[in-house]
Amino acid sequence: MIRLQNIHKSYITGTNKLHVLKGIDLHIKEGELVSIMGSSGSGKSTLLNILGLLDNHDEGVYILNNQEIKSMSETKAAKLRNNLLGFVFQSFNLISFKNAMENVALPLYYQKVARKKRNKMALDYLDKMGLKDWAEHMPNELSGGQKQRVAIARSMITQPKIILADEPTGALDSKTSIEVMDLLKEINQSGITVIIVTHENDIAHMTDRIINLKDGRIESIIENNKINSKETIRVPQE
Amino acid sequence: MFDRDKWQEIFSTISKNKTRTVLTGFSVATGIFMLIFLLGAGRGLRNGMTSVFAQDATNSMQIYGGRTTKAYKGTPEGKRIQMVNADYLDLGRSIDKLDVISAMSYIPGAETISYKNNYGNFNVSPVHDTYKEIKNFDMLEGRFLNKKDIKENRKVVAIQDVVKEVLFPKETAINKLITINNIKFKVVGVFNQPSFDDNSREIYIPITVAQKIFNNNDYLRRISFTLQDISVEESKKVEQFITYQMAARHGFSREDKNALWIQNNIENSQQFSSLFSAIEMFVWIIGIFTILLGVIGVFNIMMIVVKERTKEIGIRKAIGASPSSVVGLILMEAIFITAASGYVGLITGVGLLEVINKFDLIYKIYPPAAIYFLNPQVDLGIAIGATIVLIVTGALAGFFPARKAASIRPIEALRDE
Ligand SMILES: Nc1ncnc2c1ncn2[C@@H]1O[C@H](COP(=O)(O)OP(=O)(O)OP(=O)(O)O)[C@@H](O)[C@H]1O
Ligand SMILES: [Mg+2]
After folding, report:
1. Which of B5, B311, B319 is the best substitution to test chain A (most A C-beta atoms within 10 A)?
2. Using the beta-carbon criterion (under 8 Å), do A97 and B16 form an inter-chain contact?
């Protein structure tokens, strides 16, 4: 599903050049549930943004769904994001003046799905998230966990192949975090590839694979046993 | 453009950000309102002034005899120039591009005019039939004097409506005989004559009749004529030609400005209309600047809006909004706001003009000014022009902010500060 070869990324701020990703090689198969860990500033979000076509890489090869991603027009990237990808963010990123249902339905608007139909679908997805009664509520009337579930419904509604979540539980308490993780696992079990950036060990351990980033490189990849044993395999890189 | 979903998206954005929308629209509405109102009022003023002053055909001239102010060939200054029939005939033959010409004589003595027991003092002007081409008459009944009346010295008369009211308060006037200085004349027509002089009470009789039975001479009070398609320059040449011609005939200096008095309506009306064109131009400039200020306001607000909405636009892009759909969203919002608020300004402006017109507000506030203000209105051309200006400026005000919005990269927008 996703194949990265020697991906480099630098940010230029003024005269400084900050080399953030220093050669990432990674293969994520369809239907995997993967987490990315690492200390703050190690490049997790940068990597996820490149995977999500929100940013371009400078060097290396990125193959997404059998298609090589080179620098492409925003229009084309937008279309790919819309059809293939779903995003969940730490700060939810709901549109404040739209109610829950309208927020969930918005990706379908960009697919030119008729209003009635997309609102109905949005209601179905909210129902799956246990939020049917909150459909007419504005984001500021929802709790953090509810907002994140709305965001997940929004990421799901286009039936993407991949869901990218940047610290989806970062703003939630531990109980709600577990609920959100359970949702993401459920989504994964329906066959969708899920990639989660997280700080929290217990969250990472709920995934199949943990990719540890350090200073722009993959330090190690830990395969969690599917039967959830604590046994880990360290794969040294280079 | 006519995508219903797109409009719904725009309306929901607009309606959920009301203060912003109202602020944006207000300046544009004011601009259009000013433009429409001032233009309409200017038009009303022009109509009013024209109807008051343009009693003579705008392509006409009038010649009156004066007194010389220069001695000439032994004759001292102060000689009275008396025009006669021969002048009329001569000018009628020699003026270039002449359309119609009419002379007017006068009848001596008090003019008591009566019909049965009704009588009054009216102004009797003996003229040629062509006089109706020179004055703006409105025939209400019957006809004006005609060629046959002149040629056959018929004792006929055309009377103004106010005269008719006095002499024939309860009956029709046509074919009745009225008495002018003991001579009976048959009424052939009743007319209305726009005038700023409320006391105008005119009666016209054939000039030939007057000269024969009242004057015993061929003196003329004035000669009036109209010219065909003539420019102001040409009309001045005609003025000069007449002066030279008459100077030769009556023996006065060509340079004497007071021997003849020539009223050139061609020049007057041109000055008149260029005055109003200047006023209209001025109004346009004010209006366009006001709109421009409004549009700059819209531009600024849209700029701020785009900044405020950076995050929202980033979210939209992350979930699949293409740059063109973002441009469309901002652009159409700007166009919609300018167009809608401009329309409000347009309606308010037109409405105010209508109210002024309908309830005669000017008359109620200051009656003497009322006749100088007639039918204030904006024509279709101005309304269409204003609409086009609106759409274009709206698009302009939206374009740069929209382009800015489209260039926002989703990661920039989504980063938490
Ligand atoms: N747009 C940018 N311009 C310049 N520098 C950037 C930009 N985005 C990120 N960086 C820098 O790149 C480095 C990696 O950032 P990134 O957001 O990927 O870290 P992260 O691993 O997600 O950290 P955190 O856990 O704190 O979210 C940081 O030093 C950051 O300051
Ligand atoms: Mg991060």
Report:
1. B319
2. yes
Task: Give the H/E segment covering residue B91.
Answer: helix B85-94
What's the CA gap between A191 and A189, in Å, rounded? 5
Portion of chain A with pLDDT greater than 90, in percent: 73
Among all residues of chain B, which has the CA nearest to that of A79? B320
Q: What is the tens place of the pLDDT at every residue in A50-80?
A: 999 998 899 999 999 988 988 778 888 899 9
At A215, which helix (H) or strand (E)?
none
End-to-end CA separation in angstroms for chain B: 36
* Predicted model pTM: 0.66
Q: Residue written as tokens 């371009």?
A: A56
Q: Does A95 touch chain B (CB under 8 A)?
A: yes
Q: How confident is the model at residue A146 (pLDDT cuts 50, 70, 90)?
A: very high
- Give helix then strand counts, H and E, for chain B: 14, 14
How far the first Cα of chain A sits from its last, in Å, is 24
Q: Are A236 and A61 in contact (CB under 8 A)?
A: no
Question: How many A×B Cβ pairs under 8 Å?
Answer: 71
Chain B residues near residue A158 by CB distance under 8 angstroms: 320
Residue A115 backbone dihedrals phi, psi, to 5 degrees: -55, -50
Q: Which residues of A touch B12 (CB under 8 A)?
A: 97-98, 102
Neighbours of B218 (CB within 10 A): 17
DSSP letter for each residue of A162-185: EEEEESTTTTS-HHHHHHHHHHHH
Query: How far apart (Å, rounded) are the C-alpha atoms in residues A153 and A124?
Result: 9
Q: Is A140 on the interface with B (CB under 8 A)?
A: no
CA-wise closest residue to B183 among B152, B216, B219, B214? B214
pLDDT band at B53 (very low <50, low <70, confident <90, very high): low
